[in-house]
Amino acid sequence: QKLECAGEEKRVGTRTVVVGHRPVSETDAYVAQKFCDNRIVSSKYTLWNFLPKNLFEQFRRIANFYFLIIFLVQVIVDTPTSPVTSGLPLFFVITVTAIKQGYEDWLRHRADNEVNKSNVFIVENAKQVQKESEKIKVGDIVEVKADETFPCDLIFLASSSVDGTCYVTTASLDGESNFKTHYAVRDTTVLCTDEAIDALTATIECEQPQPDLYKGSNKLHFSKAKGVAVYTGMETKMALNYQGKSQKRSAVEKSINAFLIVYLCILLSKATVCTTLKYVWQSNPFNDEPWYNEKTKKERETFKVLRMFTDFLSFMVLFNFIIPVSMYVTVEMQKFLGSFFISWDKEMYDEEIKEGALVNTSDLNEELGQVEYVFTDKTGTLTENSMEFIECCIDGHKYKDCISEVDGFSQTDGPLKYYGKSREELFLRALCLCHTVQIKEADQVDGLIGHPERKDTYISSSPDEIALVKGAEKYQLLHVLNFDPVRRRMSVIVRTTTGKLLLFCKGADSSIFPRVQQEEIQQTKVHVDRNAMDGYRTLCVAFKELTQKEYDKIDRQLNEAKMALQDREEKMAKVFEDAEADMHLIGATAVEDRLQEQSAETIEALHAAGMKVWVLTGDKMETAKSTCYACRLFQTSTELLELTAKMVGESERKEDRLHDLILFQTCFLCCRSWTLSQEYGLIIDGSTLSLILNPSQDSSSSNYKNIFLQICLKCTAVLCCRMAPLQKAQIVRMVKNTKGSPITLSVGDGANDVSMILEAHVGIGIKGKEGRQASRNSDYAVPKFKHLRKLLLAHGHLYYVRIAHLVQYFFYKNLCFILPQFLYQFFCGFSQQPLYDAAYLTMYNICFTSLPILAYSLLEQHINIDTLTSDPQLYMKISDNAMLQWRPFLYWTFLGAFEGLVFFFGVYFLFQNSSLEDNGKVFGNWTFGTIVFTVLVFTVTLKLALDTRFWTWMNHFVIWGSLAFYVFFSFFWGGVIWPFLKQQRMYFVFAHMLTSVSTWLAIVLLIFISLFPEILLIHCWAPHLPLALCLPGGAEHPRSTIPLGSLAHPGHASTAPCASPPSCSLSFPPAASASPPSGQHAASCQPWPLAIGFACP
Predict the structure, then answer these.
(1) Which residues does the Swiss-Prot or TrEMBL record annotate as the active site (predicted)?
(2) How confident is the model at residue 1076 (pLDDT cuts 50, 70, 90)?
């Protein structure tokens, strides 16, 4: 027997899967195909390739590769410093980074092993054999029990249900936690036992692995199922969708690269100047070859250009420490260690799910403080994705809290005219019958609603049905016409105890109204529209009585369609369409998806922080708009601009509709008088967006996208409804690629949000009820939307300030370090004589100055966390990368140059006194360099102490401990503590230096002079701000906050005055009523939608 996938004849590139590894015919030659095993691999390295692969990736960094070249030059060329001075810091950086990346990859290996080593049951020789998941092969018959996750992609053969059905969730595929019904192949439905299914001899023809998520399932519920493995391991749909994840880079890293280029130019300039002046100096024969140091014959015969190049490389080596290679490892450690503070935050711990925040990518911590646009899903993100039945409308009568409310559109006669039952009974029968709800006993399923008084759980293919079927003749269920996103409705065909055949249907109003008697619509439509405006999810209910002849025809057509091997879905849809025609409308239901706790306050805070929030949802416009008002995305004073399919109208060519976007630009020019006192919001749907983003190739509408984008950027908030997952990513990409490259953040809770989460600069996953694919693919995961407030306003703010200070400080202290070395060349004949000892050169960035800045970058709080969270406008003070702009960078550079000059010339003037000791002895060049180095270490460390606003015991320990360690090391290296170091050139230099009172006075005086400008600037001007914000003009930011309007909910009376529309002439379509919608209170400040562009006649 041969089982084929529907439509397989039209596909190219197929594979043949032998069920149970038994060939169909013993006479036919069978060549076993080779398929990959079922191991999941998300790790980057193995034990064998870790070293070469990691080294290759690390040396792709410019700074690492540069220091490698410098190290090789020191080894090959006779340079003034030892290769150890650059080789040891480079080795330290490479080692620490490798350990960090190796640890993170080990965590991925461990996560893979949890999946690969999990136990599964495979049917072999008519019995079940337990194996590890990674040992599943294509063709194995796998049994999956209730509440187990599918270990690979399976073809459903049989289940424990007699009708061959099973219920699965696809939360990790498409983000939907509702249950879907799957049917086994008719020929294998009866193979329920291990013996029966082991006797099956069949092959399966299916396509080669494709990353199509919407043809798979994830988790089995309510029964046992047997299936044959067709795709395993890295060929499964899940694995194919998670490969090729792009690497995200932060704005700080880009600033570092820009600053690095500047300092590289400074390095080249210094080396060029010294090389040039050396040969100018040596143009005098006495300077070039003094009598006491004659050149050898080899030196005289050396080619001059080669000598000049060698000298240039020697100066490059001498000054190479101006490039802070150790900054990279410090940044890596700061990001890695700093990410734990997010995970440890108790305020972001959720008691309901017993989980806190999760950091998947520590490289983007500082980006949390630079977000300009927030893109958020609605269902499950802003709302709880927990449905509650609110009210229903039956034949125009509204029923709520057991009270029937009658309005002007209601019929007052009791029973319906088209059926001999009361309207209430018929409506409730429709709800009780038209669903796929089942009761599961004993087990509790995540994300589903259970009864506390019973150990039962409702499971269904729709979360709305669980809310509706909580209320109750026996009926015989004949057929279920399943729900799908295209039809947007479902139906059941039942037989009553009296033999009557009924079809009950429920679905969205847009799919039910065209299929019922038109005279029945108006009385229900009023309630549907009003419920949608109130933010409720609505469903319409209809029915139809079938004759036996009509039912036989439908039954025959359904069976034929189910057995079709080609175009099965299209044929089924055609039967459904014919069966669901000419129905009678009974009524409608309203179900509420409640807002998450503090979601409105969070959006308000994000607005106040200067961020623009866009809601991207698949819900209908009315429901999404009402939710946006409830969560304060739109204020009652917000003027709304609408671009929806309803306002586009019908047109033969897409270009005709796109042409109306020209009016969009005209209206925009008319509304140039927009000011911050008036807020504007935009509403657009998916079909209209596709016309803008994907015009036909012969269209001359290429500039429409830019016009649309300009309107979006002018609006305070944007609502995009009826959006497909791909369109969400397109929107994020469009904004991300605009001028200025604004930092974007996407937040969602389902796998259908993964595309926009991966597209944005920062992706946030909500640990909600729609599976965990969003949180697994995100950079950060939080339990609730409300936690976004602290994550951005507090953690993001502090991380950015810390790492920006770290970067500027590293460049500053290395300039202070190398500038005296450069100046020293003017006093030693450009002979490449080092000013500092090799040990000091090596230890400066590794030991003496590394820990204080690391502790600062982890613990600093220049503003209290509670203040940051309660005052969102503080977020704008660091926006647009304020602390890493060229103005603060130049300030740090000039500060480093000033202090370097003070260090060198201060000690130089001290040495103008030929005798610095009582006994008349003079100090040598190593003493000169040691005094400069001592002033340097103390100054840059105390500079950091002045910048510290939040002192802890750790700050005290590392700052004063680093200074103490420097003194201890100098005594140790000078042979005072360790006498065996007598022979080296620094013997007793440091101890001898401290015997001079003049040296003590000079050190203290030079430190004070160096830090005096800093004391004046920060501690007398703005003691509560970081350095970059204290500079004149340092807080100039183009972003500004927009005053929030009244917080009154639409539909409720408000005392705030209604905002006047902009002063421009606009044409309104007939759909835009000049009077308030029905039911709108006259005192409400609900603005009318302003139709622009498509709607203009």
Answers:
(1) 377 (4-aspartylphosphate intermediate)
(2) very low
By the 8 A CB rule, do 1039 and 372 touch?
yes
Q: Residue 1057's pLDDT is what?
A: 35
Helix (H) or strand (E) holding 663: helix 661-670
| 171 Ramachandran zone, left/alpha/beta (phi>0; psi -120 to 50) | alpha
**Amino acid letter for position 434:** C
pLDDT digit string (tens) for 223-273? 678 888 888 888 887 777 554 455 677 778 888 888 888 888 999 999 999
Instruction: Tell whether 506 is in a known binding site.
Output: yes
Q: Are 361 and 343 in contact (CB under 8 A)?
A: no
Long-range contacts: 309-314, Cβ < 8 Å, 24+? 310/77, 310/78, 311/275, 311/278, 311/832, 312/271, 312/272, 312/275, 313/73, 313/77, 313/79, 314/77, 314/78, 314/79, 314/80, 314/832
DSSP secondary structure code for residue 631 in this structure: T
Strand order in the sheet with 119-124: 127-132, 119-124, 141-144, 225-231, 153-159
Give the tens place of pLDDT for each residue, 94-117: 888 888 888 878 887 887 888 888
Instruction: Answer for the pair 795, 345: CB distance below 8 angstroms, yes or no.
Output: yes
465 annotated among ligand-binding-site residues: yes
Sequence-ordered list of residues with C-beta below 8 angstroms from that of 283, at least 6 positions apart, any chain? none
- Side-chain-side CA neighbours of residue 71 (13 Å): 16
DSSP-derived secondary structure letter, 519 = G
CB atoms within 10 A of CB 954: 15
| pLDDT exceeds cutoff 60 at 670 | no
The residue written with tokens 């490039």 in the block is 323
Residues 17, 960: Cα–Cα separation, whole Å: 70
Asked whether residue 660 is marked as a ligand-binding residue, the answer is: no
244 is in an annotated binding site: no
Instruction: Determine if residue 483 is labeled as part of a ligand binding site.
Output: yes
The secondary structure element, H or E, covering residue 357 is none
Q: Which residue has the tokens 């009318």?
A: 1088
Contact between residue 585 and residue 520 where contact means Cβ atoms under 8 Å apart: yes
The verdict on whether residue 379 carries a ligand-binding annotation is yes
Which residue do the tokens 């920006």 mark? 804
Distance CA 1086, CA 1084 (A): 5
- Amino acid found at 275: T
Per-residue pLDDT of 194-231, as tens digits, reads 888 888 888 888 788 876 554 444 555 546 788 888 88
Report residue 390 as tokens.
């609110």
- Does 929 appear as a known binding residue? no
Please tell me which residue, 287 or 6, carries the higher pLDDT value.
287
Q: Which residues are catalytic?
A: 377
Q: What is the rounded average pLDDT for all residues in the chain?
A: 76
Taking a C-beta distance cutoff of 8 angstroms, is the pair 872, 351 a contact? Answer: no
Entry pTM = 0.72
Q: Which residue has the tokens 């259970």?
A: 450
396 is in an annotated binding site: no
Q: SS3 for 416-444, per residue?
A: CCCCCCCHHHHHHHHHHHCCCCEEEECCC
Give Rg (Cα) of the chain.
Answer: 37
In contact, 893 and 811? CB cutoff 8 Å: yes
| Number of helical (H) and strand (E) elements in the chain, helices listed first | 38, 31
> Quick check: 724 pLDDT over 70?
yes
Alpha carbon distance 384, 786 (integer Å) = 12
